Amino acid sequence: MQIAFDALMYPFLFLTLYFEVFAILTFFDREAKRRRTLKKSDTFPSVSVIVPCFNEEKTLRDTVSSLLGLDYPKEQLSIVLVNDGSTDATRQVMDEYANHPHIKLMHQKNSGKHTALNAGINASRSEYIACLDADSFVAPNALRESVAHFDGPRIGAVTASISVYEPTGMVEKMQQAEYALGIVLRHILSIMNGLYVTPGPFTVYRRDVFEKVGPFRAAHQTEDMEIALRMQRSGWHIHNAPRAVVYTKAPATFSLLIKQRIRWTTGFMRNCIDNRDIFGNPIYGVLGLLVLPFNFILIFFGIALFIVGMLRLGENLWQWLIHTSQLPLTELLHFPSLNWFFAPVSAIALLLLIAMTFAFGLMYVGAKISKISNPMMLPIVWFALLYGLVAPFWLMRAALDVALDIKRSWR
What we know:
Blueprint: H1 2-30, E1 47-53, H2 60-68, E2 77-84, H3 90-95, E3 103-108, H4 113-122, E4 128-132, E5 136-138, H5 142-147, E6 155-164, H6 170-191, E7 201-206, H7 207-213, H8 223-233, E8 237-248, H9 254-274, H10 285-325, H11 329-332, H12 347-369, H13 377-404
Parallel strand pairs: 1-2, 1-4, 2-3, 6-8
Antiparallel strand pairs: 4-7, 5-8, 6-7
Helix pairs in contact: 1-6, 1-10, 1-12, 6-12, 6-13, 9-13, 10-13
C-alpha cells in the first residue's frame, strides 16, 4: 500500500508544485502591468445587468440594492430581472421595482437559468451585458473596474473577484479561503487566456459575443462554463478584473456544499468531453496544453489518493491494534515524551508542506486583492483540516455520475 501511495503522491505533488510556481511567477511578473480603471473623464458604455431569479425572495432585494449602488452613470445602466417560474414570493419582491426607471421586469415559465439569461439579453439593447446571480452582491466599483478591461477588440468577457458573503460557520469559512485562492488563480489564468468559466456571480460580456457565438445553452447545468469554452474556440479572450469585487452566498452545510460541487464537477467533466478536441491542442495555448488537462487529471488523482490514503490509514491502524494488544497494561498507560527532533520527515511531507505554504500564501494575496476584511487565519485552518477530506466525496460522486450518465437536479 505504501508503494501505491508514493506512486500517486509524487506525481500529484510535482504537478501541484509546478502549477503553483508557474502561477506565482506569472502573477508577480505581470500584475503591475495589468492595472486598469475608468476615469470620470472617460466614456462609459451602456451596460445591462441580467439577473435570473428562481426562488430568490430572501436575497433579491439585497442584490438589486447592490446594483443600484454601483458607481456607474445611471443613464448608462439598466437592470433586467427575469423570474424563471419561481414558486415563492420572488414575483412579489420583483414587483416592488415595477416603477423604477432603470429596472425592467420579466416573467417566464420555469425553463432553466440559461433561458432566463437569454430572455434578458434579448430584451436589452446595451453595448455590454453583465450577468449576476440573484444570491450575489456587487461592490460599488465592480462594474467600473470590469468595463475598464475591455481595452481590445477580441476581449469578449471580463470576470470579477468573487468572495464569500459574510461567512460564519466552518463550512463557509473554509470556502472563504478557497475563494481567496480562486481570486489569484483566476487572475493568473486570465493573463494566459486560460479561463474556462465565466462565473454567474458577475461576468460582463461584449454584446457581439452572443451575436457571433450564440446564446447560453443548458450545458449540463453549467452554462457559464460552456459559453466560456465556446468563446475560446471562436478566438475571444476572457480577462479578469481582480479589483472588481463581488460577494456570493456560499453553502452553509457540507451536504449543500457537496451537492453544489457535484453539479460543478460533472458539468466540468461533461463540457470537457464535449470539447475534448481542445485537449493537447496548441491552437488553444495554455488552456488546451495545461489548464484543462491539469484540472481533469486532478479529479482522478484526488479520488485515487483518497482511496489509497484511507486504505493505508486502515492498514496502519490495524497493525497498531495488533501491536498494542500484545503489550502489558502498564506499558500502554505510559506516554513517551514528545521530541520533535526525532519526528519522521519524508520527502513527501516536505513537498506537501511547501505546496501548502505556497497555497496559503496565494490565499492571503487573494484576500488582499479583494479587500477581504475578515481575518484569514481561521478560514485557512478550516481549509487545511477539512477540504482534503470533503472534496473526494463530490469528486467520486461526480465521476460516477459521468461514468453512468446520471443526471441530477439543480437544487
